[in-house]
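Figure caption, in words: inputs first, then the predicted bound structure.
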Amino acid sequence: MSPSITLALSKGRIFDETLPLLRAAGIEVLEDPEKSRKLILPTSQADVRVVLVRATDVPTYVEHGGADLGVTGKDTLIEHGGQGLYQPLDLNIARCRVSVAVRADFDYASAVRQGSRLRVATKYTAIAREFFASKGVHVDLIKLYGSMELAPLTGLADAIVDLVSTGNTLKANNLIEVERIMDISSRLVVNQAALKLKQARLRPLIDAFARAVEPAT
Ligand code: PRT
Ligand code: MG
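Bound structure (magnesium ion present):
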């Protein structure tokens, strides 16, 4: 029998923090993605498999039916747009925030006060555009795919919009957080057609996840 439910996860914190929720739903992933090179992992339930995809690809897989459901950060979901995705649950895992950070010697407050045009480097262009527009601050957005922390240090940008969790990465690079844009956690996303067609299998799974979610603190 070919697997009938496909769950898309990214390796790392989302995979690790989803495992206890899967376990609570009676599903054990049978291989460790850090040890195996496999991209499709079997689980203790013959009709459920996990596919490992890049974090930013999770919404795309679920939107187009490459996976029936997936777990993705609210940051990634906003940038993707969320079209075609049913979002039944905030799983309250992989928590962090999206913030604006600058070099410790950059006077962000007066740059904003004086109406200067800010050069902002980020992977999160949709979130950054919306945030600065709402503040009435003019920005030139510079799209990056990795290590945003480097941008202010090299003169590429005045500020970055990035995820912050402990703040250690900013500190290690002499950057300071000057604005908190939004709190982030990961969501369960479900393909809308799959939800109708595989209702009998998916509903109990979503309900089990819902019961296992830790309340926000
Ligand atoms: O790493 P890769 O480029 O493959 O993909 P990705 O960065 O999209 O994936 P991954 O697995 O790193 O992150 C997946 C999701 O985890 C994100 O979309 C967030 O929703 C969530 N998350 C939670 C985080 C963090 N916390 C986090 N701290 N994602 C990234 N970070 C990074 C952050 O970008 C910064 O570089 O960690 C650094 C800051 O951490 P602190 O603790 O030093 O502040
Ligand atoms: Mg990462």
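The CA atoms of residues 78 and 199 lie 26 Å apart.
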